[in-house]
Design a protein that fits this description.
two-stranded antiparallel ribbon, mainly alpha, binds arginine, 5% strand
């Protein structure tokens, strides 16, 4: 492709280190689309004759049909998807193929192709997160009043509802979606026409190519256009945050599926057995989602470090931008699908959850709150009285609401019989009606809003 200046071909090592075709062939559809938009514009501007434009467009269609049928051939001598396609085009239609590369460079070409690919990845992530949210709200509605222990420091803290717990992940998914949508909006500018780095003297129409490829507008600075990989970093940042959320959710399932917790029975379809211990049912899918999050975060770090020292404009280091993005996107897609299925198909053992909530003095705060409300006692003092009551209950091996009233009154005479109304786990969650609180009615309100946002229900008129 550049033989004119060279006396010898590249060494075997050079060919190998230079070749990106093994991975950038994933861009073939985007490369063809960008070439079609480019050649149509060259024709419309009179830069390439109508006859040559038609020959190139038809040739590109044939190349695409071949790739579709047989895959993209991997010839290291042709380096990348751009040269592979151009060389095949030349084989099919002859020297006229050489006119396609007028007023463009592989630098603006790859920047355009990759943006098109990442744009689709943002849409796919947003859609997959929507499916996860549907699973979450469906199970949350079902379990709006199912009691489980809420934890801080992984110590039983206060009773919450399972629906409330699941809706916490709905909120995380909502923020993740907004990050992908935001990244998509920001990256939706077309670098094609920036050429190698400085723009071109040919009378090209950048608005036309931008429009043809579904971009909102052309990029404003040619140097920035070919050296910017913010769009890939924006995608990876959103993917990394999303992966962290999935990892936390996966970790909960690993814990909940363990025998001491026993909060969930994982679907057989998402578990594995042990080759030596017949009783085992392992949460491998959840563990792999947790594990994959490390690789997704690693992809973000990888591309950040690749980019950090590069002067303007294009440097070949930037060819290494694609593997981390492709890897992260593949892992994220799988992780989202796995967690969606896990949420949808797991059996929550709500009797075990309730028993755990009842066992851990989770309603101690309710006793303290009751003393504040009914006895007019300052919260700090109520906290101390309650601590004494918990110590007593613990020494007798009783739940708080099973300690005889007389013994509670011996700790503080202001404790009255009606305190027992507040000490059950059901009363505890039902009382937490503040906006965003765990009360079943509050959870149902959030679920109703979420169902409208997801398009599952219409807006009440
Ligand atoms: N394969 C290259 C990449 O992915 C395409 C751009 C090459 N440009 C160049 N001037 N060598 O970045």
């Amino acid at each position: 492709m550049w033989g004119g200046r060279f006396a010898a071909g590249p060494s075997a090592i050079m060919r190998e280190i230079n070749a990106s075709i093994p991975f950038d062939k994933a861009l073939w559809r985007h490369d063809i689309a960008a070439s079609q938009a480019h050649v149509a514009m060259l024709g419309a501007q009179g830069i390439v004759s109508a006859e040559d434009t038609a020959a190139i467009a038809a040739g590109l269609e044939r190349v695409a049909a071949e790739y579709e049928a047989d895959g993209v051939p991997e010839d290291w001598d042709l380096e990348d998807i751009h040269m592979t396609t151009e060389s095949r085009l030349a084989e099919l239609i002859g020297p006229v193929a050489g006119r396609l590369h007028t007023a463009r460079s592989r630098n603006d070409q790859v920047a355009t192709d990759f943006r098109l690919w990442v744009r689709e990845a943002c849409v796919a992530a947003d859609d997959a997160l929507g499916a996860l949210q549907v699973a979450l709200v469906t199970r949350a509605e079902e379990h709006a009043a199912s009691i489980m222990p809420g934890f801080t420091h992984l110590q039983t803290a206060q009773p919450v509802t399972l629906g409330h717990h699941l809706m916490a992940y709905y909120e995380m998914a909502q923020r993740d979606r907004s990050r992908f949508v935001d990244a998509l909006r920001r990256m939706n500018q077309c670098p094609l026409g920036a050429a190698a780095l400085a723009g071109t003297g040919f009378p090209i129409d950048r608005d036309a190519t931008a429009r043809a490829l579904g971009f909102a507008m052309p990029t404003a600075n040619s140097l920035d256009s070919v050296s910017d990989r913010d769009f890939a970093l924006d995608y990876l940042t959103a993917a990394a945050q999303c992966a962290l959320h999935l990892s936390r959710l996966a970790e909960e399932f690993v814990l909940w599926a363990s025998q001491p917790f026993g909060f969930v029975r994982l679907p057989d379809a998402l578990s594995t057995g042990s080759s030596i211990m017949p009783q085992k049912k392992n949460p491998d899918a959840a563990e792999l989602v947790r594990g994959h999050s490390g690789r997704i975060v690693g992809s973000l770090v990888s591309l950040m470090v690749t980019m950090k020292g590069l002067p303007l404009a294009y440097s070949k280091d930037m060819q290494d931008d694609k593997p981390p993005v492709f890897e992260a996107a593949g892992l994220l897609t799988l992780s989202l699908a796995a967690m969606t299925a896990m949420i949808a198909d797991s059996e929550f053992r709500i009797e075990r959850m309730r028993a755990a909530a009842e066992a851990g003095y989770a309603t101690a705060t309710d006793l303290a709150d009751w003393l504040v409300r009914e006895g007019g006692i300052p919260f700090r003092e109520a906290h101390h009285i309650t601590g004494t009551a918990v110590k007593l209950a613990e020494s007798k091996g009783l739940a708080l609401d099973r300690v005889p009233l007389g013994e509670l009154q011996a700790i503080d005479p202001r404790i009255g019989a009606r305190v027992f109304d507040a000490l059950s786990v059901d009363a505890s969650v039902a009382a937490r009606t503040s906006h965003g609180g765990t009360a079943p009615d509050e959870v149902r309100k959030r679920v109703a809003e979420a169902r409208i946002a997801l398009g599952l229900d219409g807006v009440a008129s």
